[in-house]
Amino acid sequence: MARYDQDNGECLVFTYKEGLLSAVAHDLKIRVGRWELTVDGEGADAVVRGTFDPTSLSVVCAMKDGAESRGTIGGRDLQKIEKNIQSDVLNTRRHREIGFRSTGVEESGEGYRVSGELNLAGRTRTISTQVRREGERLVAELRINQPDFGIKPFSAMLGTLKIQPQVTVRLTVPADAA
To answer: Do the Cβ atoms of 46 and 40 come closer than 8 Å?
Structure first.
């Protein structure tokens, strides 16, 4: 069994701004600080399981045109954003864990197609993603539509400043242990 976590891999969430006042907002790069992914078996017989701690999300930086824009957001604003994510968006007091369990793994090119059930904010939905090799890493990127999980995307100033319903989750792990 292969085991991955925040010590040998990385799980990031990217949010994207929209709305009339989006010029004063920021796209965000957010790190999941505590998570675990296990792969039991090989190839099409593999079972992938993951748990992610939503209380461990922390803003890494703002993003501008797809590049990191460090120092753009002050410390107080970072704390306020993280508090909003936990209390208003994900309701982490009620939903203490995000979980995933694969229902199918297929070899696909130089990687895999992984399908499964994602439990987020108390709702379970079927998802599927391509896992590809990037050098010495395996990378999975997944677009999640927040309303599918009953999550209302963050909105402020009467909706003139808001986060797009779709966020991108990017998970990377070492390829050699897979």
So the answer is: yes
Confidence of residue 65 (pLDDT cuts 50, 70, 90): confident
User: Over the stretch 90-123, which tens digit does the pLDDT of each residue have?
Assistant: 999 999 999 999 999 998 888 899 999 999 999 9
CA distance linking residue 83 with residue 57, whole number of Å: 10
Q: How far is CA 57 from CA 17, 35, 98, in A?
A: 18, 10, 12
Cβ–Cβ < 8 Å for 130, 140: yes
Superfamily the domain 2-174 falls into? Lipid/polyisoprenoid-binding, YceI-like (2.40.128.110)
Q: How far apart are the first and last CA of the chain?
A: 9
Report in angstroms the alpha-carbon separations of 117 from 31, 47, 51, 57, 149. Answer: 22, 12, 12, 21, 12
Give the sheet arrangement for strand 17-18, strand by strand: 17-18, 161-163, 155-156
With 70 as the cut, is the pLDDT of residue 21 above it?
no
Global pTM reads 0.91
**Residue 85 DSSP label:** I
Q: Find residue 11's DSSP bridge partners.
A: 171
